[in-house]
Amino acid sequence: MGRLILVTGGARSGKSDFAERLARQLGGEDVVFIATAEARDDEMARRIAAHRQSRPATWQTLEAARDVGRAVVRAGEAATVLIDCLTLLVSNLLLADGEDTPPERSEAAVEAEVAALLDAVRASPATVIVVTNEVGLGIVPVNRLARQYRDLLGRANAVLAKAADEVYLLISGLPVEIKSLALRGNFP
């Protein structure tokens, strides 16, 4: 059975850097990187290119804008799988059929994606590290689509955090392992 580590925090908090260092520490050269980003504009294309260049050349990269559970299965016997990131995966699912997708359909798609990911993690021999953003600490978004996104990602994060063996929150580049803190308080 695989081990699940969730890495969360705000934008530019150091999540990806921390997750990559952790993946290198746990898997060395035997890491499969699952990238969920889609280049919907030039700025995102530049970000994707920079991320590709920063990863070790020995790591295998799988592109999976959807069906991340299937990509975990494709990773085979890798020691470590790094998924960066759930935030973009949920966005991809939310926008798959355009901005006017019925909320129930988006919710069902995200729930199915997270369930498939957890099934794949349980069946994998790997340590799977998932990077995600914590988007629920700010103001309530002004438009329906942004509120729907915040809610979908928040629920997906909660499901993964509950299933995870370790959960790290990054604040200003500093990782704090929060799952063990929650368990010490005997929270369900």
Automatic annotation (TrEMBL):
GO terms for molecular function: adenosylcobinamide kinase activity; ATP binding; cobinamide phosphate guanylyltransferase activity; GTP binding. Its EC number is 2.7.1.156, 2.7.7.62. Pfam families: CobU. The keyword Transferase applies. One of its GO terms (biological process) is cobalamin biosynthetic process. It is an enzyme of class 2 (transferase). The keyword Nucleotidyltransferase applies. InterPro entries: CobU/CobP, P-loop_NTPase. It catalyses: adenosylcob(III)inamide phosphate + GTP + H(+) = adenosylcob(III)inamide-GDP + diphosphate; adenosylcob(III)inamide + ATP = adenosylcob(III)inamide phosphate + ADP + H(+); adenosylcob(III)inamide + GTP = adenosylcob(III)inamide phosphate + GDP + H(+). The active site is at 51 (gmp-histidine intermediate). Keywords: ATP-binding, Cobalamin biosynthesis, GTP-binding, Kinase, Nucleotide-binding, Nucleotidyltransferase, Transferase. Pathway: Cofactor biosynthesis; adenosylcobalamin biosynthesis; adenosylcobalamin from cob(II)yrinate a,c-diamide: step 5/7; Cofactor biosynthesis; adenosylcobalamin biosynthesis; adenosylcobalamin from cob(II)yrinate a,c-diamide: step 6/7. GTP binds at residues 9-16, 35-37, 52-55, 63, 84. NCBIfam families: PRK05800.1. Belongs to the CobU/CobP family. Catalyzes ATP-dependent phosphorylation of adenosylcobinamide and addition of GMP to adenosylcobinamide phosphate. This is Adenosylcobinamide kinase. It comes from Limnoglobus roseus.
